[in-house]
Specification:
Layout lengths: L2 H12 L9 H23 L13 H18 L4 H14 L11
Bound molecules: magnesium ion.
């Protein structure tokens, strides 16, 4: 599924409710919350700080999906086509950053 298809699904979901999208800075604050939750999971899995037995175990993939959904909402609220933006970014890393890292032999 393309990013724009995910944008459409997210937009259809948001449109079910009154009020529509949060303001950009409100979505950004929500994004920071979600990034914090991802950091917490990463820290618990790979760092020294283990979870309390009473704490819910969350999947890292689920936290990443929450972040992506929040970004889809931010893009939708600003009428940004993420397929276009993503294609542009891939072009950039394939040109500007082409020789930045050691190539794999395969
Ligand atoms: Mg989350």
């Amino acid at each position: 599924m393309s990013l724009s298809e995910h944008q459409k699904i997210s937009d259809d979901w948001i449109k079910k409710f009154t009020g529509g999208y949060f303001k950009p800075h409100e979505i950004l604050a929500r994004l920071m919350e979600e990034v914090g939750k991802l950091a917490r999971e990463i820290n618990h899995k790979f760092g020294p700080k283990k979870k309390k037995s009473s704490e819910k175990k969350n999947e890292i993939g689920d936290e990443i999906a929450d972040i992506i959904f929040t970004l889809l909402c931010l893009a939708n609220s600003l009428n940004i086509d993420l397929d276009k933006s993503f294609t542009k970014m891939i072009k950039k890393i394939n040109t500007r950053d082409k020789n930045r890292y050691k190539q794999s032999s395969s």
